[in-house]
Amino acid sequence: MSETLPKKVENSKIAVHCEGVSKTFGAGNAAVHALRGVDLDVRTGELLMLVGPSGCGKTTLISVIAGVLRRDGGDCTIFGQDYKLMTEDGITSFRGLNIGFVFQAFNLIPSLTTAENVATPLIINGMKPKPAVSKARDMLIQVGFDERMMRSFPSDLSGGQQQRVAIARALVHGPRFIVCDEPTSALDGETGLKVMELLRRLGCVEDRALVVVTHDSRIYKFADRIAAMEDGRITEVVDSASQLKVLSEQTI
Ligand SMILES: Nc1ncnc2c1ncn2[C@@H]1O[C@H](COP(=O)(O)OP(=O)(O)O)[C@@H](O)[C@H]1O
Ligand SMILES: [Mg+2]
After folding, report:
1. φ, ψ dihedrals at 149, nearest 5°
2. Does domain 2-240 fall into CATH 3.40.50.300?
3. Could you read off the pLDDT of 111-146 as tens digits, one per residue?
4. Residue 249: what pLDDT?
5. Are 51 and 234 in contact (CB under 8 A)?
6. The dihedral of CA 119, 120, 125, 126: what is its sign?
7. Structure confidence at residue 7 (pLDDT)
8. Average pLDDT for the chain
9. Average pLDDT for residues 71-86, to the nearest whole number?
10. Mutate to test the pocket of ligand 1, among 24, 29, 32 (most ligand atoms within 8 A of CB)
11. Which is the closest atom of ligand 1 to the Cα of 26?
12. Interatomic CA distance for residues 131 and 122, integer angstroms
């Protein structure tokens, strides 16, 4: 995979540009400097993995990029837009249209069927429930779901199936930027690999960018590039896991 990569990345556009991004939680003696000047570009068409020890700032960084948290300093643009120049409502609607989220804990709504869960982002974006559920069903077919599974509730599904629903929900509205925070860490090895194959196949298309935060070295092979993070900064960005200087520390 990595041999074809540099060309792919070279021909792509910048989806996300971060320069000197900082974020501090709390103040005074209790201040936690979660981001201490992050420089990072994410390109369209790529799956960038963000790796690093627990507490180094990975979730904070993707939350800033996704417009969930406001940065304190530095520059950050996503598809040329800057959250600093938007109102809260503007950010919410930008996120609804442009960003898809996949979390470790799936975060499905237990009282809704699989198809209704996947339809949620469309309904939030103003689509009527009937066409939204119909579009959600098309998306669920792409992640391998049949009629019976579409009518089931999250509690009827295995972890791997729930994560497939979460991926369908993250992609159904055609977002340009997909953020996955430890998407395989609640899954066994084999299921985790299947989930990554799905993310790669459905998520990595020309005008889209994917960032996957992970601790799981077994899935590094799905990355186009890997960005290593330490203590609130990006310390290296490489094309393949074998080039990672911090690999031994990452391997768990
Ligand atoms: N809402 C918050 N309030 C206070 N501290 C936080 C908050 N979120 C994260 N932190 C702190 O910021 C640092 C980075 O956290 P995080 O981005 O979650 O790291 P990672 O995802 O790499 O494990 C940690 O020290 C964490 O305790
Ligand atoms: Mg985290």
Report:
1. -65, -30
2. yes
3. 999 999 999 999 999 999 999 999 999 999 999 999
4. 53
5. no
6. positive
7. 55
8. 91
9. 97
10. 32
11. 4
12. 9
